[in-house]
């Protein structure tokens, strides 16, 4: 198939592309801009010429019927070519693909004009549309505001870029990160918008094969193609009933879709030797694709009661979350009732294994690296909580869910998966999912879930990073339940720096260590309202904001009631949880080893004390995992 791909590229005559985004076919400067007036929104569409395609992800909130095509109204004076009077828009992610292009350098021109706002003194002039643009996976425009760049509404502007096409496909990705207004001049108006696209070769297109050579190659390639298709059909790759492909048809371009055969080949048929961990959602395997790319394949135990289309929709929304401190989700594979998630592979495994794994797995993390890791986790959480359109509460931040790449940059994994693990297709969870020792007390004991639960978990992980000890395994004395409990005692005694990992010796900054330890205690404040936001945490780590750590008094006769109450809460739930979690209390007491793989998980799901009460009041207690906070 790779040979066929190369032959297609060789004989391809496609070296230019012109699209009138959201409008009919028109001519401009001697070039015909193809029609792109398909009204489909949350879908994918291929052009009649098969030279290009687009995919759109997301649904506009607040309105049942929403336009995905924009057209200028009579009151707006649009200047420039005719294609500036129409545009295509998307609520979240809009991708255009140039297909079957020759290898080489191209000049890409993106045409924009803001035609949904006005530039007069009316309410409509207050609108702000802000989005990002990537070409071939590289960010080229960040926080792009059409009106600001064009100096007004209805004014056309062009942004030009030189890009390289190494294969045969060009990808232009416009995506909204939740910035700008959302209800001006009406609800909902937001997301990326584009008027036209032109792609022209920077190389001499006159040079090429003769007509006879091209005819010979075409004939030979057709014969090879027929033989290849016949071989694939005989081997069972083609034909037959494939319910999952029928169900997913029309969604392929929203997220990378891998076949089960691809994944089996990459993982050597899920060879146990390639198993790199076991998480609460299923085992994880290391794999290598045919192009040599390394991947991590998470095999979810079983699919929820949502259909495959809903699954791919939610996975597609998760995959659209791009941040340097989040593990990249490449795509998925659905087969029967199984769902496989394909992630980028992290060379240095998990933070847990690096800090307190077996000796042969431990990494020597110097102080600057530990600070960098702590900052990376904070930035990833700040993105999930405050910067992305999907306001995601992770619910299970811990050292095993923080992975390290080859440069020891921290990346958060498993974000957004708690929603996919729900037993019912509902926006409210009556289960408490998390890990003993990392869950915030208000969430563990009352089911009250906000982003401050992640802040608490971050504080515990920060404490582990400084001390090099596991919060659930390290117990200097029997009366201390967790490492955090011991930290409160040392703070009260004025010996907080005794927590610093002895392996660092004197090679660390006492000022920075004190700041990080005080921040850890601040983040683990018993009161969620007194915990800082993750954006404030970043400023505190950078020394831009002073830290006033709370003084938590711990009674000698009645050690921290939060820990004891939590332990009792866990005991009371034993009859409701799976057998795999029934010995979690004893694990908690004697300490368990969770460090051997990046996905090894001690997560539990505790049912609520009164499910009926939670069903009636959970809207107040638990926020939707995908709580979209769209502020004007």
TrEMBL record:
E.C. no: 2.7.11.1
Major site of localization recorded for this protein: membrane
Top-tier EC class: transferase
Top-rank taxon, per record: Eukaryota
Bilayer-spanning residue ranges: 209-232
Coiled-coil segments: none
Keyword Acyltransferase: no
Any Pfam family matching the protein: PK_Tyr_Ser-Thr
Residue span of region Disordered: 571-595
Membrane-related topology note: Single-pass type I membrane protein
CDD domains, per the entry: STKc_IRAK (cd14066)
Biased composition (Low complexity): 572-583
Keywords, comma-separated and alphabetical: ATP-binding, Glycoprotein, Kinase, Leucine-rich repeat, Membrane, Nucleotide-binding, Phosphoprotein, Receptor, Repeat, Serine/threonine-protein kinase, Signal, Transferase, Transmembrane, Transmembrane helix
Reactions performed catalytically: L-threonyl-[protein] + ATP = O-phospho-L-threonyl-[protein] + ADP + H(+); L-seryl-[protein] + ATP = O-phospho-L-seryl-[protein] + ADP + H(+)
Listed GO CC annotations: membrane
GO molecular function: ATP binding; protein serine/threonine kinase activity
All copies of domain Protein kinase, residue ranges: 270-552
Location(s) in or outside the cell: Membrane
InterPro entries for this protein: LRR_Rcpt-Like_S/T_Kinase, Malectin_dom, Prot_kinase_dom, Ser-Thr/Tyr_kinase_cat_dom, Ser/Thr_kinase_AS
UniProt keyword annotation of Transferase present: yes
SMART domains: S_TKc
Protein name in UniProt: non-specific serine/threonine protein kinase
Species: Carya illinoinensis
Lineage: Eukaryota, Viridiplantae, Streptophyta, Embryophyta, Tracheophyta
């Amino acid at each position: 198939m790779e040979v066929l791909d190369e032959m297609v590229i060789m004989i391809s005559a496609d070296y230019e592309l012109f699209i009138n985004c959201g409008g009919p076919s028109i001519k401009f400067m001697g070039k015909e801009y193809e029609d792109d007036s398909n009204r489909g929104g949350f879908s994918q569409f291929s052009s009649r010429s098969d030279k290009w395609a687009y995919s759109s992800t997301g649904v506009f909130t607040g309105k049942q019927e929403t336009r995905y095509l924009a057209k200028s109204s009579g009151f707006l004076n649009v200047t420039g070519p005719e294609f500036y009077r129409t545009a295509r828009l998307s609520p979240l992610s809009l991708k255009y693909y140039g297909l079957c292009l020759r290898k080489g350098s191209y000049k890409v021109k993106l045409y924009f004009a803001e035609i949904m706002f006005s530039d007069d003194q009316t309410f409509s002039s207050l609108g702000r549309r802000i989005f990002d643009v990537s070409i071939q996976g590289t960010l080229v425009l960040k926080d792009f505001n059409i009106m600001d760049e064009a100096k007004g509404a209805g004014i056309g502007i062009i942004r030009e870029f030189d890009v390289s096409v190494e294969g045969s496909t060009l990808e232009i990705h416009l995506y909204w990160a939740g910035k700008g207004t959302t209800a001006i001049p009406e609800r909902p108006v937001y997301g990326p918008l584009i008027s036209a696209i032109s792609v022209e070769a920077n190389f001499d297109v006159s040079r090429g094969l003769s007509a006879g050579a091209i005819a010979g190659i075409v004939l030979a390639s057709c014969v090879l193609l027929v033989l290849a298709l016949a071989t694939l059909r005989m081997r069972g790759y083609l034909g037959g009933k494939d319910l999952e492909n029928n169900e997913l048809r029309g969604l392929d371009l929203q997220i990378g879709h891998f076949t089960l055969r691809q994944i089996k080949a990459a993982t050597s048929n899920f060879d146990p030797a390639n198993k790199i961990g076991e998480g609460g959602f299923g085992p994880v395997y290391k794999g290598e694709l045919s192009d040599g790319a390394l991947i991590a394949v998470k095999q979810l135990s079983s699919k929820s009661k949502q259909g495959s289309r809903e699954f791919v929709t939610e996975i597609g929304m998760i995959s659209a979350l791009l941040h340097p401190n989040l593990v990249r989700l490449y795509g998925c594979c659905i087969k029967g009732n199984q769902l496989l998630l394909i992630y980028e592979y992290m060379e240095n495994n998990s933070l847990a294994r690096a800090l307190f794994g077996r000796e042969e797995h431990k990494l020597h993390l110097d102080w600057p690296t530990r600070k960098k890791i702590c900052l990376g986790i904070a930035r990833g959480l700040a993105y999930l909580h405050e910067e992305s359109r999907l306001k995601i509460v992770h619910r299970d931040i811990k050292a095993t869910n923080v992975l390290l790449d080859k440069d020891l940059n921290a990346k958060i994994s498993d974000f957004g998966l708690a929603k996919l693990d729900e037993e019912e297709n509902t926006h409210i969870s009556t289960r408490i999912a998390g890990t003993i020792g990392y869950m915030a007390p208000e969430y563990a004991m009352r089911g009250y879930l906000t982003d401050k639960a992640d802040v608490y978990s971050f504080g515990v992980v920060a404490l582990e990073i400084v001390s090099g000890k596991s919060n659930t395994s390290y117990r200097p004395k029997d009366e201390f339940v967790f490492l955090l409990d011991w930290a409160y005692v040392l703070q009260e005694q004025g010996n907080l720096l005794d927590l610093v990992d002895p392996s660092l010796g004197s090679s660390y900054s006492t000022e920075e260590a004190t700041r990080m330890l005080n921040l850890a205690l601040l983040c683990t404040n018993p009161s969620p309202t007194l915990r800082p936001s993750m954006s404030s945490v970043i400023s505190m780590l950078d020394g831009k904001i002073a830290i006033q750590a709370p003084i938590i008094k711990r009674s000698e006769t009645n050690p921290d009631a939060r820990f004891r109450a939590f332990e009792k809460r866990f005991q009371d739930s034993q009859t409701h949880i799976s057998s795999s979690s029934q010995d979690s209390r004893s694990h908690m007491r004697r300490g368990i080893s969770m460090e051997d793989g990046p996905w090894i998980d001690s997560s539990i799901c505790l049912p609520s004390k009164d499910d009926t009460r939670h069903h009636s009041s959970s809207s107040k207690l638990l926020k939707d995992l995908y709580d979209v906070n769209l502020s004007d």
